[in-house]
Amino acid sequence: MMRRIVSVWLIDWPVSVRRRSLERARRPASPPDPALDPQTPFALILKNSRGAAVIHALNPAARATGLRRGQTQADALAMIPYLLCQPADAAADGRALKALAIWAERWSPSVSLDPSDEGLEGLFLDVTGATHLFGGEAVLLDRIRTRLAETGTTARVAMAPTPGAAWALARWSEGQDPIATDDTVADLLADLPVEALRLDDRTVSGARRLGLKTIGHLYAMPRAGLAKRFRDGDAIGLVKRLDQARGYAAEALTPVRPPARYRVWQAFAEPLGDVAGVEARLPELAADLSRALERDGQGAKALTLTGFRTDGETTSLSVRMGLPGRDASIWMRLFREAGFGRLELGFGLDALMLTADLTEPMLARQGVLESEAETKQAESLALLIDRLTARLGADRVLTPEPVDSWIPERAERLRPALGRVPAVDGTAVGRRPILLLDPPEPIEDPLFDLPEGAPARFTWRRVSRRIVRAEGPERLSPEWWRPRPDGREVRTRDYYRIHQARALGIAAVGVADRNTLAGMVRAAMEAETLDLPLIIGARLVFTDGTPLIVFPRDRAAYGRLCRLLSLGKSEVVPQPGADPEGERIEKAETRLTFEQAVALGEGMIALAPAPETPDAAFEARLGAWRAAWPDDLYLAASPLWRGDDRRRLNRLAAMAERTGAPMIATNAVLYHHVDRRMLQDVLTCIREGTTIDKAGRRLQANAERDLKTPARMAHLFRGHEAALDRTMEVARACTFSLRELQYQYPDEPVPSGWTAQRRLMRLTFAGAREKWPDGVPMKVRTQIRDELKLIKLLKYPNYFLTVHDIVAWARGQEKPILCQGRGSAANSVVCFCLGVTNVNPAEQDVLIERFMSADRDEPPDIDVDFEHERREEVMQYVYRRYGRDRAAIVATIIHYRPRSAIRDVGKALGLTEDVTARMADTVWGSWGDAVKEEHVDRTGLSRDDARMQLALQLTAEIIKFPRHLSQHVGGYVLSQTPLLEIVPIGNAAMDDRTFIEWDKDDIDWLKLMKVDVLALGMLTALRRGFDLIADSYGDRFELDTVPQADAGVYDMLCKGDSVGVFQVESRAQMAMLPRLRPEVFYDLVVEVAIVRPGPIQGGMVHPYLKRRKDRREARARGEPFRIDYPSPSPEHGPADELKQVLHKTLGVPLFQEQAMRIAMQAAKYTPAEANSL
Predict the structure, then answer these.
(1) Would you call 10 exposed, middle or buried from its count of C-beta atoms within 10 A (0-12, 13-18, 19+)?
(2) How far is CA 488 from CA 482, 483, 497, 943, 1005, in A?
């Protein structure tokens, strides 16, 4: 039998999906989305593998303008500025296509996605042997295309013996609904272009270069000739596709849903015109299907009876069963219960098909091992459920199942009885009544004997009631993200009373993050401003999942804690059964054991948090821990508000007495105020990768994880006052402060008897003599001596020696590494003499105070750029020279900004990716304090939507929160003593890199010094250019020998022809170049500096450009050009003091150094005061 494959090309499928999505989301009163207008050019944008935004799909109006798929968004907007762009959602397109494929099973049981389009724009239907059921092949193709058009989907269809031929005809044939047979397929394909063979762009280009423009041109080409003219892989791919299209090579298709393995079929000579005829034919089909299942030991759980009508349509009736079976009589009963009358017979049925859609093995039971009565009862119940479901529908025969929710009235839901009921841990909640009112009803006039106790009396439904016995409370916060039907404010409620207020009065705060000290410096900064004692610690979570909170008593214990965390983050930890050398610990992962904590735990106070349900296993572990940590291990107890806190605290106190681990009172704080509870829930969802509706018990049950007053804690732990006393004892025992850290920059090697200052002085003057072989100018000598005195005063000679050593090592390699210092270090004559920077102090007016000052309490910052491709060699040299225990990269804390905040918060709240992407696209730039309602308006979304309002509120709260920890681009912290006793060191994502947990601001507060080893791609490009020049012309250039007066370069720049030219390739720079018209090297310095916010916002750009223009015109006329500078009174200073500062920039201040000089000259500021100004 000839194979018959239908290819369905869904033209503009992603656009069709988006259009239907927008139509469903549109509110009746809201204006239509512009994307729904067929006259508006509209494109969906997707990032390609290189990260570039490219067109993923176009509507017909956009295609008519000449745009094409795969074109970059920037090019498209340049061509059509009014093009409407929205981010594509490939996942949603794929889901919709899969749903369409299932819908298309009415024509074929085997429907596959088109793999050549990544499953986004096509379907294959295998209709072999079934086309006659629909009135023939042409009728079937017309029916498929027409039905798709009725759903708003434009499609082209074709039928052929192979998937490749059908695909080619659907997309490239000029006729409508082409049909190919074995005899005609070659002729129909011959005139189609080679692109119709589903070839990649490179193979198509190669074929066209050889003159092979159509598939017919390939027929006569010998295979050997093709192999010689194409690359091996291209030739193989071309030949394979050609053979697949013509049927010479097999091509497998993978159905979206594999066709039912078990199905029976019966065709009729005369159509069945009534239900009685169908019911009469079904027993024979059922018996045949039952025998087929019995042969394989299978039983059916879902059956479908499909009727093929004479008009080409299908009608079906399905039944489901709770247990697998193959009793044909039961099947008949279920179909009768479902109702044969539901079948739409039309003008009659040509054929019937019965399929077992879901099967399971049927295992034989041994009756002697079971209770026969119980077995019959279970089978009878299952049959009853099956019959009721068949008669009433699956949505009306329901059974309760537990739900992952803290709220009692939502802790259970009804679902179809035929479905499987997932297991939910019911032990996480306390004991609850069998019946709960839904919705809960408020009580009135409650009277309390104790502030946190149960009410002694209350009024409910106008009847006063007295409490005889009560337990609790089990305190639960509402699911704040669900809107209240009555519009009232959601409130925290106990399940017998309402909320209460809190106040703070805290003597000390203990902070312990999970396996990290990353936030400790920020906490110490805040605590210091509030004069609040901070107890620094860590919550260690061991590899078996058990937690232990540790607080170091003193500096030595803190060093051991840092070493312990470093051990868990960066040391090689062998795995059971693995190679003895183990495996690398990944970034953000910590592997520690209790034994390792004990080994380094001297001087630390340890708290073992009590689990929600303390059991014998926990007591045994607590006893073993106490034996291993005999002096300072405590049992940490905190209230859970599950309704049994009093009994739970009593059990914990008894457990503490038996194990010898004293009980200590804690509160397990997660946020400082109850208002932060919503944000805490959102952060939990972000961390867990779920939505607020699905998080369930991963969220906190209530809002009691806030800071509480001492009086409140005393009330919560009444009867256990000793536990509160121990809390204060621990607070007093932990005296360590981060201010105790004594950091020492590493000593650089110097000759015996020398100091680092003497070594630096020798290197500086030696470098000066190399720079000025004819003699160092007196001005420079003075600058060198003054700067060396300042370096000695500030105790920075080792720092300068480190930078010199790194630069010298890089340049001293067999193949030297290009490097160059930049930034404020260009003001340092010492850096120039050491070869770190390249700004000649004899030619430039440098200002050392811009770089380093005795009045500024901060170390100098020398930024050195190295070749991007070889920077890693320099970094590994630093690790080798100082050791990984004394050198590590600084961290960078990535904070939430508006775009990332709305994306993460919106996703956590259940907003679709399309909505969050549209919101993020309305935010300009990186920083801001909120995403506002105006941004919602720009997207066309409704600002009245409750979830959208929550997203805006929580986005404003989360902005500037830490998002994740990354590594600095190249900043190192070096230490004379082991750095891992100051701050934990962990592995970076990149192999052979380790970094600390603190960022630049943290180390600045602690006065730790940073050495920057940065990467610059342009240095790599320059090195390649130097190599090419040397290879081609024999001239070897270095950075300081490149000619600075090449007239051709300045002519090129004056035209704005600077695409790909470093520093001046932005649109703003390209627009500025023809206006500024650089003539000398210093003009380029001005060009780079003037396109910045400072000069622009300060109104300096236009005055400077006007003066350049006036000077050019004066020169053209042969007239002198003069600038009038403000002249001070004679007693103030020389008349040209401002001219000395501003003459190089034509009297317009453009640089920070000039602003400092003006303050020093005009207002007689000291250099330090001018820098502060």
Answers:
(1) buried
(2) 12, 9, 17, 20, 47
Q: Which one, of 511, 513, 539, lies nearest residue 527 by Cα?
A: 511
The CATH code belonging to domain 509-574+582-669+707-739 is 3.20.20.140
Cβ neighbours of 42 (radius 10 Å): 25
Span of 575-584, 692-701, 993-1002 with lowest mean pLDDT: 575-584
Q: Name the residue among 684, 513, 587 with its Cα closest to residue 966.
A: 587
Each domain of the chain, given as residue ranges in start order, spans 5-246, 262-362+371-394, 509-574+582-669+707-739, 756-893+967-1018, 897-960, 1043-1172
Assign 3-state DSSP to the chain and report helix, strand, coil percentages, each to 5: 45, 15, 40
The overall longest dimension of the chain from CA atoms, in Å, is: 122
Q: Long-range CB contacts (< 8 A, 24+ apart) of 456-459? A: 458/496
pLDDT single digits (tens) 711-743: 888 888 988 999 999 999 999 999 999 999 988
Residue 929's SS3 state is: coil
At residue 604, the 3 state secondary structure works out as strand
Cis amide linkage into residue 451, ω under 30° from 0: no
pLDDT band at 48 (very low <50, low <70, confident <90, very high): confident
Candidates 282, 401, 256; CA nearest to 335 is 282
Tokens (6 digits) for 1157: 């000089």
Spell out the residues 6+ positions from residue 980 whose beta carbon is closer than 8 angstroms to its own. 562, 563, 566, 885
Q: How far apart are CA 551 and CA 533, in angstroms?
A: 13
Instruction: Name the E strands within 194-252.
Output: none
> What's the token pair of residue 382?
């299952």
Q: By C-alpha distance, which of 857, 1172, 790 is closest to 1009?
A: 857
Euclidean distance between CA atoms 89 and 92, whole angstroms:
5
Span 153-180, average pLDDT:
92
CATH class of 756-893+967-1018: alpha beta
Q: Compute how many other C-beta atoms are within 10 angstroms of the C-beta atom of residue 862.
A: 28
Assigned CATH topology for domain 262-362+371-394: Dna Ligase; domain 1 (3.30.1490)
Instruction: Say if 5-246 and 262-362+371-394 have the same CATH topology.
Output: no
End-to-end alpha carbon distance in the chain: 90
pLDDT of residue 664: 95
The number of helix segments (H) and strand segments (E) in the chain equals: 41, 31
Quick check: 882 and 1034 in contact, CB under 8 A?
no
**C-beta separation of 785 from 792 below 8 A:** no
| The two three-digit tokens of residue 114, written as one number | 């088109």
Third-level CATH fold of 5-246: Alpha-Beta Plaits (3.30.70)
Residue 1153 tokens, joined: 């150094």
Classified as helix, coil or strand, 815 is: coil
pLDDT of residue 368: 43
What residue type is assigned to position 338 of the chain? Answer: A
* Sign for the pseudo-dihedral over CA of 1040, 1044, 1049, 1050: positive
